[in-house]
Amino acid sequence: MSNPSNHHDKDKRDLNKFGYAQELLRSMGGFSNFAISFSIISILTGAVSLYGHGLTYGGAGMMGFGWPIVALFVMFVAAVMAELASAIPTAGALYHWAAILKNKRWGWYTAWINLIGQIGIVAGIDYSVALFADPLIASVFGYESSNTTVLICFTIILLTHGILNHIGIRIVSRLNDFSAWYHIAVVAVLVLSLAFFTKGNLNPVNYLFKVGETFSDKPYMFAFLIGLLQAQWTFTGYDASAHTIEETINPRVRAPWGIFTSVAYSFVIGFVMLAFVTLSIKDAGAAAGSSNAFIYVISQALGGTFGSVILWLVTAAMWFCGLASITSFSRMMYAFSRDKGMPMSNQWAQISKKYRTPAKAIWLAIILSFLLAFIDYIIKMVNPDATYTTIAFLTAVSVVGLYVAYGIPIYLKLRAKAEGRFQDKHLGPWNLGKYSSFISVVALLWIIFICIVMVIPPNQMAGYAVAGMLILLIIMDLAYYKNHFPGPQAALNTSMEEIVRREKELEKTSSV
């Protein structure tokens, strides 16, 4: 049995060779690292909040075919990211990988694009919670749910996540551990309830694979592609295992498994859940036309009171998802600020002396996520006839931002490998061996494909938002990057060869 103190010493040395001191509290085990990504993926958030989107565009077949197709290709992406996390175990994750594999400019752009995606995913998750929670609360207190009351609910939810993340990683870690089991338990309750208590009979299994039916004005194949947003947004945020890698014990093994297994388990458990929800549909057209298709389907299948209990359980799971997403976002921002990548970096890189958490980065994450949803709220107030939905806008922004950020280091790894700058000796203990390049190419092709699909009409607003943010990023490049960004310590005058050399020196020193 390994000595925990030995692991801590080795983990500290692994971090030191990349130029960083151990500042964050390293207390997360393997399950906790898995749990944070599993909680952010949250099949009870993405698959549920966008259930109506998937059903409207792809019909029942979106659940039978769309979910497995997306999940399969995302597993390729997750596998390559896991390999990189094992090789370069720092909280900066994506942008540290890019900076080391190429240069600091690539790292800087990767970081900012990742930040765009992180803003979108936090806003999208907590807005999803509000979309479910506000009507349920309204039914209890007798007010009418509206865009304004949803925004107020969204703000309160963000504040609860900020406070808990500020207080400490131990509390959040325990809640994330609980969240993983809670997700599984709620899915089990939901599936068993639908299997045994659905009013009337379930649809035959082949209904799950019914293709050709769309409730949109688009041709079916085109509509099916648009509907993939449901599954694709669900499978985001699993880089959280890498962002919390400096708080994980034995991170070069546990964090990669956290990334990969969080996707794999979500794939299987999510498919079972979607299958039973879809097989319980009484009227697909009415569900697609309702304000919330998932609530409609559950209410029709299980009745008012029982259905409401299930929906409250699902809403609580979404809340846990948002809690974990703030943890991941703030760690990424902390790591970037530690490298002076943001204006006022000295503020966002500060660690709370009492709680040992990046407190100011946590609250900045809260503010930025609120602003994205608030700007959309103002646009809707000015233009009430807008056809896009807020949740589709927020989720598409997060998918494009995150997956472009995922794709950059994957592309750079392929280039570095072709040029001989990244070799087998640079890999960590978790690696893909001889299949690494093939899996990387498949992952990259899927990222290119899905990012195009996510910004075509009716999601063009997401494309405009991402384009606007990229223009601001170019302006910041000219105004800030050249004069203020020295690059991550992990990449300053450092190549993979230099890191391997440092590792050998540290091993010799520690053995003396």
Automatic annotation (TrEMBL):
This is Amino acid permease. Keywords: Membrane, Transmembrane, Transmembrane helix, Transport. The lineage of its organism: Bacteria, Bacillati, Bacillota, Bacilli, Bacillales. PANTHER family: AMINO-ACID PERMEASE BAT1 (PTHR45649), OS04G0435100 PROTEIN (PTHR45649:SF26). It comes from the Bacteria. InterPro entries: AA/rel_permease1. It is found in: Membrane. It is a multi-pass membrane protein. The chain crosses the membrane at residues 34-53, 65-85, 106-129, 149-168, 180-200, 220-238, 259-281, 293-326, 361-379, 391-414, 435-456, 462-481. It comes from Paenibacillus phytorum.
